[in-house]
Design goal:
single chain, alpha/beta, Rossmann fold, about 20% strand, globular
Amino acid sequence: MRGSARLLAVRSRPLRATVEVTLWCPDGVRDGVPLPLLAVHDGPEYERQTGLTARAAELIRTGRVPPHRIALLNPGFRDEWYSASALYARTLTGEVLPAVGRAVAVAGTPAGMGASLGGLAMLHAQRRSPGAFSGLFLQSASFFIPRFDHMEKAFPRYGRIVRFVRGVLRDAAFDAPVPVTLTCARGEDNVHNNRRVTAALRLQGYRAALVETPGGHDFGTWGAALHPHLEHLLTAAWGAG
């Protein structure tokens, strides 16, 4: 890992649990210097599997994105927190991100990133708290739709996810659309629901684009899809901010 990292522990009243955040910063930047922030669901695992912070350091070094910090969010009780949970969404936008902002100076509005359930949870948080995010990077997001995802019915929070996704598909407009890049392997079961959600977001004013890739539902595929799409999303999000 290039740069420096520290651990923040944010006690959540709604969740009655502690959300751990590994906060990464590029080399040589003091806490009081305002930088944009990227918040990443499943962050520690994403870092281990893809070398996300080393990629960020290289993008910063070459000037392709501005210097920024990354909040690597520990998933905690993942299946509960990341499954369109109102309590988790309130914790993320009302407690965790403000706690990061007290630890370091944050420039503008954070961007959000997540894969699978983590992608679903990031869109859910943005829909519940318009204005909380400047852009979203969502990979193989678990947008369960019964027509395509009946095989997921055994998942304990299947119904809650289906209700949220139906709401997204049904809404004619949204007051705070942001740039969104979605990636999904074209051979995944998830690709059908990602296509539907992308189309709905576009109709609601989001600058949404779906990138279909080779591969599967795994970190190797998600890591391969980062270049150049993540840098384009961050440029759009923070440039707009």
